[in-house]
Specification:
It is found in: Membrane. The structure is a single chain. The termini are far apart. The chain has one domain (2-241). The protein is globular. It has 11 helices and 4 strands, in the order ααβαβαααβαβαααα. Helices cover 58% and strands 3% of the residues. It has helices spanning 2-6, 10-36, 53-78, 90-114, 125-128, 143-159, 164-180, 190-193, 204-212, 224-228, 236-241; strands spanning 42-43, 84-85, 162-163, 185-186. With 252 residues, the protein is mostly helical. The strands form 2 sheets. The chain has a two-stranded antiparallel sheet with strand order 1-4. A two-stranded parallel sheet has the order 2-3. α2 (10-36) packs across α3 (53-78) and α3 (53-78) runs parallel beside α6 (143-159). The model has no long low-confidence stretch (mean pLDDT 92).
C-alpha cells in the first residue's frame, strides 16, 4: 500500500484525499444519525432544526482544507519528513495512546487560545453560531481553525514515526468523539457515564455543555486539563452521572 501511494500522481492522490474526507463527513453524519436514535438518548439542547446554508458552506470549506492538509502530509511523507510504519500489535496500541494524550493537550491549548478575547470574535465565534449543534457541526469551522488543527497534526506526525494502524485508529476515535460531542444529546446510559472512568474520559455531555456555555469544557478526549486549569463546568459531574441529565440553557 505504501508503495502504491508513493507512486501516485499528485492529482490522483488529491482526488483520493478528497474522496476520503467526503467519506469522513458522510460516515460522521451517519454515526450521528444512529446515535441520536439510541434508546434512552437525552436531548440537552434544543433541536437545531433544518441545516443552514452557512453551516453547509463551512462544512464544504473544511472538507476542502482537510484535503489540502492530507495532500501536504503526503508530500512531507514522500520527502521523508513524516515517517510511517506498518507495525502492529502492542506497539500500535502504545502509539495510539501517545497520539491521544499528545493531541488532547495540544487541542486543549489550541481551543483555549481561540477562546481568548482578542481571537474569539475573529475565529472561533463562527463555530459557536451553532450552539444547538448537530453532527456535521464538527466540520463547521473557520478556515483558520481547520488549517491550524491540520498543521498541528502534521507537526506531531513529523516529530516521531507512527504506524498506519495507529493513525487510522486515532482518526476513527477522533471522529467518534467529535460526532458524539456535537449531537446535542447524551446517548450513553447512566450506568456507563456514571462510572468513575468517565470522570476522566469526556462524555458527549461535556462538549454539548461547551456549545451551550463556551467558557467551560474546553477539552476533547479527557477532562484532565479542564480539571487542572479550572475550566470544567461546575455542575458537569452531577449532570454527567444523573439518571436523567438536566438540559442546558443556551447562553446560561
Amino acid at each position: 500500500m505504501l508503495e502504491f501511494l508513493e507512486t501516485m500522481h499528485p492529482g490522483g492522490f488529491a482526488l483520493l484525499a478528497l474522496v476520503e474526507n467526503i467519506l469522513l463527513v458522510g460516515v460522521g453524519a451517519l454515526l450521528g444519525h444512529v446515535a441520536l436514535r439510541l434508546p434512552g438518548a437525552r436531548r440537552l439542547t434544543p433541536d437545531p432544526g433544518p441545516v443552514s446554508g452557512q453551516e453547509l458552506a463551512l462544512v464544504a470549506s473544511t472538507t476542502v482544507l482537510n484535503t489540502a492538509v492530507t495532500v501536504a502530509g503526503w508530500w512531507l511523507w514522500k520527502a521523508g519528513v513524516i515517517v510511517l510504519t506498518t507495525d502492529l500489535g502492542m506497539r500500535t496500541l502504545a502509539e495510539l495512546v501517545v497520539l491521544v494524550m499528545v493531541m488532547d493537550v495540544l487541542m486543549y491549548a489550541g481551543h483555549a487560545t481561540v477562546h481568548l478575547r482578542a481571537l474569539f470574535p475573529w475565529v472561533h465565534r463562527l463555530h459557536h453560531v451553532f450552539a444547538d449543534a448537530r453532527p456535521i457541526t464538527l466540520f463547521a469551522l473557520h478556515p483558520f481553525e481547520a488549517i491550524g488543527f491540520g498543521a498541528m497534526w502534521l507537526v506531531v506526525l513529523a516529530v516521531h514515526p507512527f504506524s498506519i494502524a495507529a493513525l487510522t485508529a486515532y482518526t476513527a476515535l477522533n471522529l467518534v468523539f467529535g460526532i458524539l460531542g456535537h449531537l446535542g444529546v447524551e446517548p450513553l446510559p447512566q450506568r456507563v457515564r456514571g462510572n468513575v472512568v468517565f470522570r476522566w474520559i469526556a462524555t458527549p455531555t461535556m462538549h454539548v455543555g461547551h456549545h451551550a456555555e463556551p467558557r467551560w469544557n474546553l477539552g476533547f478526549y479527557t477532562t484532565v486539563w479542564d480539571r487542572l486549569f479550572h475550566t470544567l463546568e461546575p455542575g458537569y459531574d452531577l449532570r454527567r452521572a444523573a439518571p436523567v441529565p438536566e438540559p442546558y440553557r443556551l447562553g446560561a
